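Quarterly update, task 2.4: 4'-deoxy-4'-aminopyridoxal-5'-phosphate-bound model.
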Amino acid sequence: MLAFNPQQFRQQFPFFQQQPDWIYLDNAATTHKPQPVLDAISHFYQAANSNVHRGAHRLSQQATVLFEQARADIAQCINARQPTEVIFCSGSTAALNQIAFGLMHGYLKAGDRILLSALEHHANIVPWQLHCQRHGVIIDVIPLTKEHHLDQQAYQQLLTLKPKLVSLTQVSNVLGHITPLPQMLQQAKAVGALTVVDGAQGIVHLGADVQQLDCDFYVFSGHKCYGPTGIGILYGKQAALEQLTPLLGGGEMIAEVSFSHTSFNQLPFRLEAGTPPIAGAIGLASALKFIQSYNKNNIILHKQDLLNEFYQGLKKIPGLDILSSPVHNAGIVSLNVQAEHPSDVASLLDQQYVAVRGGKHCAMPFFDQLALPGAVRFSFAPYNTSADVASSLQALKQAVEILTA
Ligand code: PMP
């Protein structure tokens, strides 16, 4: 395992050589891609490009081996029991839609309750709403404390309503707050609920050990953990995946088709309709192996150092309303500049080559609760440096001076 050296780590990402002016602090939206991931994708297209599973020719067999090896590698990286528990899809959104759709045709029935939290991304709200309303399933929501952490007392109360499913984000994409999943999942299981973890933000910071979490489903997107766009993972325990009705039909997901009946293939193919994202799967496996080649704790410490330096600097800028707490934080700080619109602040930062995001971050219920138009979000990755922190603070200070002059 490599010791963590931020400069060495950063050098693996060609973006920073190509675009040296940018201070990229929009990592919660998407991360840059290291050379090994770019090489893995390029190698597939240059040397082995072919469709998988179907071809009689050797190229197709070679592509199939690479694709299935990617599944096995990803299964190992997230500690799944077997590769068949790893389903390829286009991302966290697709995975959550598949789970919500798939459980409404048997597992969830009219009058059942499910439990989400007030910090969820729309991708972990809307798919449930789409189906719950139609099937008479009730959605309850865990509220927040005044520090914007999940209210654990309220959670205990809501669990007494015996939800059949609890679906939670591992890390808030708005605030960076880390959900205390081990205890919350255990409590959900104690009342017999199926558990879903939205790992879109968590995977890159905390990683996923799905056996240790012991969740029924865990989803994430490749592009937020140094992999390509268009690929994501729906992990499920075998028994949980078997409960899912396929959302999409066609391609490898069938065993037999006639006009009167279709029988489905076995897992994982049953939930992978059409030509799968082959290059994406290979790129994602490479990204997860890249992460695992570094010491996770050292990466976490480096990000915590960056966060501490950033918070220290923020103290010197007047008129800020900081929404994120620096503890149990995966490296995201959302804030506002007095009553200024977050988009105006983000635009002024953009003019100084600081890439952040301003808005509601696909979490409208959270901002509606606070009666805020959104926030400016600074999200850090291990390739960020103390120099990035200093420059972004300087740019923010300048933006505040312009807006409040
Ligand atoms: N959940 C969370 C917590 C996220 O941050 C995101 C992406 N912003 C998603 C789900 C959806 O991910 P994707 O757009 O890659 O499907």
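Highlight for this quarter: The longest strand covers residues 332-337.
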